[in-house]
Amino acid sequence: MTAELAPIKHPFKRWAKFLLPIVISTGILVYLFYNYRIEAIWEKVDELSIFTVLVALGLLLGNLALGIGRLKYLLSYFGARDISTFACIRAFVAGLLSSIFILNLVGNVVGRFALLRRQGVSVATVTALVFTEKLLLAISGLALLVFGWVEVFGSRQLYTALAEASLPEAVLAMCLVTAASLAIFRWTREQQLLRRMVSRTALSRIGAMLALTLAAQILMALTYAIIAERIIGPSAPSLTTLFAAGAIVSFAAAMPLSVNGWGIRELTSIFVLGKLGVPAPEAVGTSVTLGVLATVSVLISSVFLAKPLATSALPAKSAEDSKDQESVLTVAKVQSRTTNSIVLLVAGPLTVLFLFFSMHIPFEGTVVSLNLGDPMALMGLALFLLTWTTSKKLPAEVPRFFLYWMLALTLLLIGGFLNGAARIGVTDWALNNRLIGWSVILGYVSIGAMCVSTLGLHSLRRLAEVIIVGGAMITLFDLAHRQFEIASGSFEFIASNFEGFVKNRNAFALQLLTGLVALLAYSVPFKKKLPPILLSFLLGSIMLGIWRSYSLSGLACMVILLAIALLLRLLPWKMFGLAVFWAGTVIGLVSIFSYISNVSGVDRLPFNHTPDADLIVGGSTSERLLTIRVGLEMWMANPIFGEGLGSFANRHFGENGKQLVIHSVPIWLLAEFGLVGLAIALSLPLAVAFKYIRSYTPNRAPAFMLTLGLLLLFAMFGLVHDIAYQRLFWLLAGACAAASVKVGYSDKQR
C-alpha cells in the first residue's frame, strides 16, 4: 500500500537535505582565499572599470535571455505549448535562484517546478526538461571544451585522453546495445516514442535548442575572457586563448558537484590559467568576479518574480461552473501521469545502459572517474522528493518494511559517520565516498521503484532486458575490438582480462552475473517470445564474458547460479548446452586467431606472445586476506557498534601508503558498524529468504526469482569483494521492492 504522509510543517527540514553542497563550495572558497590572500585577489578585482563590469553584465543578461528561449522550446517539446513567455521567464529565474543555494541539478528542478506547477506542468515534465537541458549543455559544452583543450593544452593530450578513456568505443557500444535491445525484444512502445522524439518537427526544435545553448555558452566564455584580460593586464594571453580557457572553466563549473559552480570554477581557473603562466590571485579573481556578476544578473532578473502570475495554462479551457473545473483538473492529472510514465519509460533503461559505462579520463598524472548514470540518479532523487512533498504520498508503492530498511541503513551510515568522526575525525573517504555517495544510491533506488510502480512489471522486464543485452553485446564488442587491434597491428597489451567499460574486471564480472540472474529469472517468459537459439546466444555470450574476466569470484558464482537454475528447471538443458557450445566455439576461434597472428606476425605483438599469455590479476590474495584479518581485529575491539565509518580506510594499509577497503561486505559492516550494523543490513534479505523457504507453493514469478537471485549473488560475491555501493544492484533493489507489490498480478509485459 502507498504510505500516506502527514503534511510537512517545517520546510527547513526539506531544504536541509541539500545544504551539503553549500558546505563544499564554501569550504573550497575559504581554502582558496586563505592560501592566496584575499587582499591580493581583491586588488586585482578592484582594477576592473565600470565599463568592463557593465559589458560583462550585459553579456550575462544576454546569456539568461538565450536560456529563457531554450526553456520555451523545451516546454513546447514536452507538450506544454500554452505556457506564456512571462511564465517561462519567471520559471527560469526561479530555477537559477534555487541553484544559488542548492546543488545545481536539483535546484533547477525545485525552482522551476515551484512556478510551473501553477501552470499545470507536472514534476515529471520539469525533471525531464531539466535533464534534456543539461544534456544539451553537455553536448554544446563538449564542443567548446574540445576547442579550449586544443588551444590551451594542445591536440596530443586530447587525443591521448580520448583514446585512454575509450570514448569513441563507448559511444559505438552504447548504440550497439540500444539497437540490439530494440530489435531483439521488440520494444514496441519505446520504438514509437523514439520515432516521435526524432520526427522532423522534434528535430527542428532540438536544433534550435542546441543553437541557443551553444550561443549562451559562447557568451559565458567570452565574458570570462573579457574579465580575465582586464584583471591580468598587459601580460594577458590573447583574447582567443582566454576564451578557450573560459570554455574549459565554464564546462567544469556546469558539473553538478557544487552550488552554482562555486569552488569548482575557482579551482579549474587556477589550473587552466596556471598553464598559461597566470598567477593564482588573478585566476581566482577572474572566476570570483564572473561568479559574482552571474549572481548579480540573476538577482536583477528576479524582478520578474515580483509580479504574481495567475494560474492558467491547464490542459483544458477554464469553465464557469465547478463541474467543468473538476474536469479541467482531471485532464491535468491524467496528462501528468502520462508524462510521468513517458519519462520513466525512458529513464529506467537509459540509466541501466549508462551504468555499463564509467569514463576514466587520464589528466595531469591522475585519473578522473565519471559515472554516466549518476546524473540520472540525482534527477530521479529530485523527482522522487518533489513528487513526495507535493502530493503528500510516496510516488512509488513499495512494502513498508523496505522503507523502514532503507531508513535504517541511512541512519546507520549517519551514526557510523559520527562514530568515526568522534574517533579519528572526518575523513574524505567516509564523507564523500560513503555518506554523500549514499544520496546517489538513494537516487538509483528511487528510479527503480518509480519505474516499476508507475509502469508495472513491464518496466522491470525492460530493465532486465537492457542488463542482459548490455552484458552480451559489450562482451562481444570487447572481443571483436581486441581481435581487430591484433589484426591491424595496433594492439597495445594491457591485460587479457575483460573489464568492459568500467575498467575493473570484478565489477564487470558482477554486471555480467546480474545479467545472468536476469536471464535465468525471465527464461520462461522469454522462451514464449524468442527463439531458443537466440536465448542460447545471449546466455553463451554472458558466460563467455565472465570467463574472460578471469574473476575467480565471478566464475564461482556463475557455476553456482547455473547449477541452481538447472536444478530448479529454470534453465533447460538444451539451452544450456547450446550456450556452452557457442561460448566454446568463440573461445576456440579466438585462440586459433591469436595463435596465427602470433606466428605470422611476431613483431606485431609485444613481448612475443598472445594477449592471453599475461593474465593481469588486480589485487593480490595476500592483500585481500590482510583487509579481512584487520577488519576482524577491528570488530573484536568494538563488537557492538564498530570503530566507525572510514576507520579502516584511514589506516592506509596498501602499498606506498595507498588507501585500501575491506574486501568483504560482512567484514566491513562488522568492523565499522559492529553487530548492530550487520543485523540491520541482513534483516530484509533474511526476511525475504525465510518467506520463500517456508512457503508451501514457491512463487515462481520472474520478479520474485530475480529478487532471490540478486540476493544470492550479492551474498556470494560480497563475501570477498566490496560491492556495498554497486549502483546496478540498488537500482534493481528498488525495482524489485516495487514489483513485490505487483507480483500477485498477471506478469504480462506488453
From TrEMBL:
Subcellular location: Cell membrane
Keyword Membrane: yes
Taxonomic superkingdom: Bacteria
GO cellular component: plasma membrane
Record keyword Cell membrane present: yes
Alphabetically ordered keywords of this record: Cell membrane, Membrane, Transmembrane, Transmembrane helix
Transmembrane portions of the chain: 15-36, 48-69, 89-111, 123-150, 170-187, 208-227, 239-259, 342-361, 367-389, 401-424, 436-456, 506-523, 553-571, 578-596, 667-690, 702-721, 727-745
One Pfam family of this chain: LPG_synthase_TM
Topology term for the membrane: Multi-pass membrane protein
Name by which UniProt lists this protein: Flippase-like domain-containing protein
Record lineage: Bacteria, Pseudomonadati, Pseudomonadota, Alphaproteobacteria, Rhodospirillales
